[in-house]
């Protein structure tokens, strides 16, 4: 079926980009989520027939649901554990949050476009992803009340790593974030917080995301 074919394409993409990723295959649990979560539930009616294409799709308000291959590699890079608590900036459709939901204990996700955030909240509840909390607001400031997090995933492009997110990452935690100029390519960065709070960034590969917006 279409979802299995999508999973096959992700595997091919991973092999093709193995020199960036430093591996030839992603974590099996991550791939199982990609094979399970019904992406067609997260796209608008007129995009349903493309739901399992391995590409981003418009979700309205100038925003997109990310390419499945990108969702898979970002999830893999977070090195999640069953007891992890994860923060996502950029809920969008809620698809990435649903993928995370099956891999960790709790997901906290923030969306700045109110109608998208409210729709994602409803959708995730309807589909039974009940360890996901959705908040409408500016994710640049993170989610102080729920911090610190074992992992943080930013699914919009930032010009810099938001300092509040650096603070809200646990020592030993990982953040994955596309950093660079709006509308041009960005670099996907894997940021780890070492003992004494030192941050170490590693460039993974060039990507293209919609920008982080908000008033900061
Ligand atoms: N992860 C989403 C796709 C993200 S698209 C999915 O799985 O569908 C990027 C999203 O980030 C958009 O919905 C955009 O509105 C949101 N966004 C941009 N700036 C933001 C900010 N400062 N705080 C929270 N969300 C933001």
From TrEMBL:
<dbReference type="InterPro" id="IPR029063">
    <property type="entry name" value="SAM-dependent_MTases_sf"/>
</dbReference>
<protein>
    <recommendedName>
        <fullName>Protein-L-isoaspartate O-methyltransferase</fullName>
        <ecNumber>2.1.1.77</ecNumber>
    </recommendedName>
</protein>
<dbReference type="Pfam" id="PF01135">
    <property type="entry name" value="PCMT"/>
</dbReference>
<dbReference type="GO" id="GO:0005737">
    <property type="term" value="C:cytoplasm"/>
</dbReference>
<keyword id="KW-0489">Methyltransferase</keyword>
<comment type="function">
    <text>Catalyzes the methyl esterification of L-isoaspartyl residues in peptides and proteins that result from spontaneous decomposition of normal L-aspartyl and L-asparaginyl residues. It plays a role in the repair and/or degradation of damaged proteins.</text>
</comment>
<dbReference type="GO" id="GO:0004719">
    <property type="term" value="F:protein-L-isoaspartate (D-aspartate) O-methyltransferase activity"/>
</dbReference>
<dbReference type="InterPro" id="IPR000682">
    <property type="entry name" value="PCMT"/>
</dbReference>
<keyword id="KW-0808">Transferase</keyword>
<comment type="similarity">
    <text>Belongs to the methyltransferase superfamily. L-isoaspartyl/D-aspartyl protein methyltransferase family.</text>
</comment>
<keyword id="KW-0949">S-adenosyl-L-methionine</keyword>
<dbReference type="GO" id="GO:0032259">
    <property type="term" value="P:methylation"/>
</dbReference>
<dbReference type="GO" id="GO:0030091">
    <property type="term" value="P:protein repair"/>
</dbReference>
<keyword id="KW-0963">Cytoplasm</keyword>
<feature type="active site">
    <location>
        <position position="66"/>
    </location>
</feature>
């Amino acid at each position: 079926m279409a979802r299995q074919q999508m999973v096959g394409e992700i595997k091919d993409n991973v092999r093709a980009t193995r020199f960036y990723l430093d591996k030839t295959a992603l974590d099996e649990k991550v791939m199982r989520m990609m094979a399970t979560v019904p992406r067609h539930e997260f796209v608008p009616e007129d995009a349903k027939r493309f739901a399992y294409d391995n590409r981003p799709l418009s979700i309205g308000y100038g925003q997109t649901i990310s390419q499945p291959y990108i969702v898979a590699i970002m999830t893999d890079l977070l090195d999640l554990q069953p007891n992890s608590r994860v923060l996502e900036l950029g809920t969008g459709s809620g698809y990435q949050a649903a993928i995370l939901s099956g891999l960790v204990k709790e997901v906290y996700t923030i969306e700045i476009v109110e109608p998208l955030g409210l729709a994602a909240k409803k959708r995730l509840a309807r589909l039974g992803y009940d360890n996901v909390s959705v908040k409408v607001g500016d994710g640049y400031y993170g989610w102080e009340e729920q911090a610190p997090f074992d992992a943080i995933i930013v699914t919009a492009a930032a010009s810099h790593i938001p300092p509040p997110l650096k603070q809200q990452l646990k020592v030993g935690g990982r953040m994955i974030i596309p950093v660079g100029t709006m509308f041009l390519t960005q670099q996907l960065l894997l940021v780890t917080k070492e003992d004494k709070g030192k941050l170490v960034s590693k460039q993974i590969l060039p990507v293209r995301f919609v920008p982080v917006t908000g008033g900061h």
